[in-house]
Design a protein that fits this description.
The structure is a homodimer. By secondary structure, chain A is α+β, with helices and mostly antiparallel strands. The first copy, chain A, has two domains: about 140 residues, Jelly Rolls (Sandwich); about 50 residues. Chain A contains nine helices and eight strands. In chain A, α4 packs across α5 and α8 packs across α9. The structure holds a DNA duplex.
Chain lengths: ~200, ~200
DNA sequence: CGAAAATTTGACATGACTCAACTGGAGTGG
DNA sequence: CCACTCCAGTTGAGTCATGTCAAATTTTCG
């Protein structure tokens, strides 16, 4: 359903019924099975992507081949390798479905053509990128100054809607700790909650 | 001198001589002494700010009153609390001069008025914010998966132009380590360089 | 020069990682 | 339906990385 996307956009900008229809038509739905890749490192990243169902992760690989998860996404979120999309360079990140998922995609050329017709889109993206930047700044500063336990506590309160769909070892990767250590942290927290 | 600013903008977008003059006139110069605040938490953040000389830091305070440095800036960089600027909310960060500095400022109202007259400005900011976002993503992922020593090595190679103007304890804060530990890291690196 | 701030050093404590073993659940094939 | 395997999660021992605190040293600056 594309109504979710339109509602999402209307939280930030006004769209006439006609514009909403145009935007709806421009996005194509794509189904993904669990573990299926939406984008791999080196691929061109031609689309902006909005999640309507499921759960995905954006990650890179370090020198030892370990995943470093940059971001999760669930329905109502955008996922992309913005770098690849904006610069038209090969993607530096992987995007993979954690569970069966559905995304709506719009091609860069289609979107660019729409900017003239629907100026609200321009404004929408500017606000989106600004908000993403602000959130990322806060994440960075927290990650650098908080202990692993504090980061985990923050994660579960902030993202408890995602938490259920995501295996623990991926949360560990997102938080920058080992799965073993995260397990210890969880034990510690649950025992202190009893008192 | 405002030529620096115009040159900086022309690296990304085309500006006619007339436009360049208009932009130049719109920016006001502000001198800062060492340790002087350009912005404090809670202040409104009405300006976009371009550094033409000196060195500044953007930081917040944690619960114990310790600085958590988010960003440094030297000439040719922009510094701001984007959140405060864009949302017109009180600033959440402090901006303070590390050395005597000069910045060029433009007020939000002036800038907004210019967008119609000079569309290139719109494009300039979009690219700027995108680049900042991409760089911040990479910083976040590195900070979370690298050791303190790796982060420091990356810092000095990436920002060796700033390094001289910035006291070590501030670099420690930026890297998320204690000043004592950074001192140990430096000793270790310098001794291994000899061999 | 003298005081204050920044940096270094060292002893010790704690946080986080590594590695290996174990547990328990979710398929899967017989 | 059972036995088997695989994978995520847990546990524990040992180690390394980093933090804390206090003191010594060096640098900066009035």
């Amino acid at each position: 359903m594309k109504t979710k996307l339109i509602e999402h956009m209307r939280q930030l900008v006004a769209l006439s019924g006609e514009d909403a229809q145009t935007v709806s038509d421009a996005f194509k739905e794509k189904q993904l099975q669990k573990k299926e890749f939406l984008l791999k490192k080196g691929d061109p990243s031609h689309h902006m992507r909005f999640i309507t169902a499921g759960c995905l992760k954006v990650f890179s690989l370090d020198n030892d081949g370990n995943e470093r998860i940059l971001q999760f996404g669930i329905d109502g979120w955008w996922v992309n390798d913005l770098y690849g999309y904006l610069t038209e360079q090969p993607s530096v990140y992987f995007i993979q479905a954690i569970t069966d998922s559905t995304v709506l995609q719009i091609h860069r050329d289609t979107l660019n053509a729409l900017y003239d017709e629907i100026p609200a889109l321009d404004r929408f993206w500017r606000i989106k990128i600004q908000n993403a930047y602000i959130a990322l700044q806060e994440r960075t500063i927290n990650m650098m100054s908080e202990s692993a336990e504090e980061r985990y506590s923050r994660f579960i309160t902030q993202y408890r809607t995602m938490e259920q769909s995501i295996p623990q070892y991926m949360i560990a990767s997102y938080l920058g700790v080992t799965p073993e250590h995260l397990s210890v942290i969880r034990k510690k927290i649950s025992s202190s909650e009893l008192s």
